[in-house]
Amino acid sequence: MKRLWCLLSLACAPAWAVEAADPMLPPAELVLRAVSEVPEVRGAEAGLARADAQARMRASGSYETQLTLIPQQRRVPGDRNYNEWEMDLTRSVRLPSKVRLDREIGASGQQAAQLGLEDAHHAAARHLLAYWSDWQRARVERQQWEQLVAIAQRDRDAVARRVELGDAAVRDRLAVEALLAQAQAALARAQSAQTQAELAWNSSFTRLPLPQREPLADYTPPALEGSDEGWVGQIVARSHEIGATAALARQKDAQARRARADRLPDPTVGIRVLNDRNGRERAYGLVVGIPLGGSYRRAEAASTAADAQLAEAELSLVQRDIERQARSEVAAARAQREIWQRQREARDAAREHAGKAARAYALGESGMAELLAARRIEQEAVLAERQAAIDALEAVARVQVDAHARWHRHDDADDAAAGDTPSAAGIRLPALGNQAGR
After folding, report:
1. Which of 37, 120, 216, 411 is deepest in the core (most CB within 10 A)?
2. Residue 55: CB partners within 8 Å, gap ≥ 6?
């Protein structure tokens, strides 16, 4: 019933479940190229090649023709010696039911490996989104502290001139200098955090360059359109992890049936040729061997049956975890959008308050401490709003990535052709939004 619900949710998914370009995210064609080159994906490709080879091995079978040659010499008292030899040509024969099971086991392994490769792509896309968002947050923080340092430097110079003219107290200059020193220390921490984020990015995605321009100063993150159940249904129905686990469960079940079938051993058939007394006597015979199965084969069948039950339990666990994670991600996307809206309201209020504080200070109605406090609150509110916007974008993009509505190589027919994907070498990402007015 759960699988049916997932398929129905997928069938009812609206047309909004498609990838759309966002000025704060890297282009899809470069992302697809970058994730295809990470070691995890290349390892999964090797795993698929291994599964293909194992499927061919199972289809052909492990039995091989065996040639046994026995040269011997007969000594007859009172007579001469005779050179003789014996040759056996034998081969074990798989029963037809076992051939079908071996092919089923190989096909299930291929399906699991193919889905594992797709899941490696998906995991790499998730990691790319996380690293990209971390770098965006660090860059926004560094940019905001740079602006606060510039403001503090202007305030310090202005207050210093007023102190020289006797229009301001020395304590005002000391307050501004203290704020400047704090802002410079915070800027140094933000620059270090951005450097670390860039190092983490460059070590993981060397072929996808980071943009050189600053992010949008007034960015509105996208909302998660559609229903929660529709998104959860897509994530569950399109989960490669569930598909790979299901394929492995089918493989374990086929292996259990194969072990039960192997309690009836495969026969060995062949021919025997004897050459006696220097070829004067010859004999031809048919060789038939039937192993007698015992307790080992019964225990092996019981062991593989337990493995199949364990695989079914693991499949249920994966389905449960993926659905729970999907619901959590959708709820987080809704919540992060709401948080951003509240942070934007707080930013607007802090800006208005800072403007009034600046006018009051210019008119002599308040002191420098009030002005500095208002400006500090404004900068913190601006930083919180911009980081909340990145959090909201990341939450929505994560849902889209998990639903294979973004950065999935099979969502667009154009992405299927590797030759159509441009190389990221030497490419600079476009500016993140309109930079006019900066």
Report:
1. 120
2. 103, 106, 107, 109, 110
Number of domains composing the chain: 1
> What number of CA atoms fall less than 13 Å from residue 17's CA on the CB side?
25
Cα–Cα distance measured from residue 42 to residue 418, given in angstroms and rounded to the nearest whole number = 15
User: Is it the case that residue 424 has pLDDT exceeding 90?
Assistant: no
Which residue from 122, 327, 337, 341 is spatially nearest to 227, judged by alpha carbons? 327
Q: Are 298 and 263 in contact (CB under 8 A)?
A: yes
Q: Please write the tens of the pLDDT for every residue from 237-281.
A: 999 999 999 999 999 999 999 999 998 889 999 999 998 877 788
As beta bridge partners, residue 72 has: 84
Q: Which domain holds residue 316?
A: 21-420
- Whether 166 is in a domain gets the answer yes
Backbone angles phi, psi at 190, to 5 degrees: -65, -40
* 44 domain residue, yes or no: yes
DSSP 299: H
Domain assignment present for residue 7? The answer is no
Contact 244, 116 (CB under 8 A): yes
